[in-house]
Amino acid sequence: MNVRAEIELDEAGLVAVARGLAARVGEGGAIHLCGELGAGKTTFARALLGALGVGARIKSPTYSLIESYEVDGLQIHHLDLYRIAAADELEFLGLGDLAAGRFLILIEWPERGGDALPAPDLIAHLRHAGAKRQLQLTPCTQRGESWLGSGGGGEAN
Ligand SMILES: Nc1ncnc2c1ncn2[C@@H]1O[C@H](COP(=O)(O)OP(=O)(O)O)[C@@H](O)[C@H]1O
Ligand SMILES: [Mg+2]
């Protein structure tokens, strides 16, 4: 499956792609999850977190804004900024501190977070497609390229 192309997936298919990605992101980085309400962002994040070994029930951060976990020394932060009205509301989250050490950050509604957010290594765009969803994965850094495999990884930068 070419995950760089836009692909139409049912929920099981979307979960499978997210689980596959989990096998590659152990070094940490940033993933932005874009798409309207109900597009599958939390589904994708949950599948990825579960495959990483987050054993606890994975809550949606819709109300808390952030849920954090740690697996094997990897700090994992799952954010949902839907309820943020202005980027400066994020200050109390202490994003600078989150982005320290080896961390993986998954951000739903990154558009609402402005410049304070870690820049994405990978953007997952999700769209409704009838009863299914369209997923497109766009790498933004060399690291993101390497996550998608097929020769994109390497030593440049
Ligand atoms: N690929 C998919 N195909 C069909 N339904 C899906 C798919 N992915 C998620 N869903 C369903 O869509 C609904 C919303 O998903 P959710 O992940 O909460 O969206 P978001 O976080 O983008 O608002 C859930 O009921 C979920 O089960
Ligand atoms: Mg969500």
Full CATH superfamily name: P-loop containing nucleotide triphosphate hydrolases
What is the fold named in CATH at topology level? Answer: Rossmann fold
Arithmetic mean of pLDDT: 90
* Residue fraction in strands: 25-35%
CATH architectural type:
3-Layer(aba) Sandwich
What bound compounds does this protein have? Answer: adenosine-5'-diphosphate, magnesium ion
List low-confidence stretches.
Answer: 151-157
Shape: globular
Task: Work out the radius of gyration.
Answer: 15 Å
- The number of helices is 4
In which order are the strands of the major sheet placed?
1-7-6-2-5-4-3
Distance between the ends: 27 Å
Number of structural domains: 1
Helix content: 10-25%
Q: Strand-and-helix sequence, N→C?
A: EHEHEEHEEEH
Largest sheet: 7 strands, mixed
- What CATH first level would be assigned? Alpha Beta
Q: Total number of β-strand segments?
A: 7
Q: What class do helices, strands and sheet pairing give?
A: alpha/beta
Give the helix/strand layout.
Elements: E1 7-9, H1 11-22, E2 29-34, H2 41-52, E3 66-71, E4 74-80, H3 95-98, E5 103-108, E6 122-129, E7 132-139, H4 142-148
Parallel strand pairs: 2-5, 2-6, 4-5
Antiparallel strand pairs: 1-7, 3-4, 6-7
This protein binds adenosine-5'-diphosphate and magnesium ion.
How would you characterize the overall build of this protein?
- The chain is globular.
- It has helices spanning 11-22, 41-52, 95-98, 142-148; strands at residues 7-9, 29-34, 66-71, 74-80, 103-108, 122-129, 132-139.
- Helix 3 (95-98) links the parallel strand 4 and strand 5 (103-108).
- The model is unreliable at 151-157 (pLDDT under 50).
- The longest helix has 12 residues, at 11-22.
- A seven-stranded mixed sheet has the order 1-7-6-2-5-4-3.
- The protein is 22% helix and 28% strand.
- It is an alpha/beta fold and 157 residues long.
- It has one domain: Rossmann fold, CATH 3.40.50.300.
- The chain has four helices and seven strands, in the order βαβαββαβββα.
- Helix 1 crosses helix 2 (41-52).
- Bound molecules: adenosine-5'-diphosphate and magnesium ion.
- Residues 41-42, 60, 62, 80, 108 line the site of magnesium ion (MG).
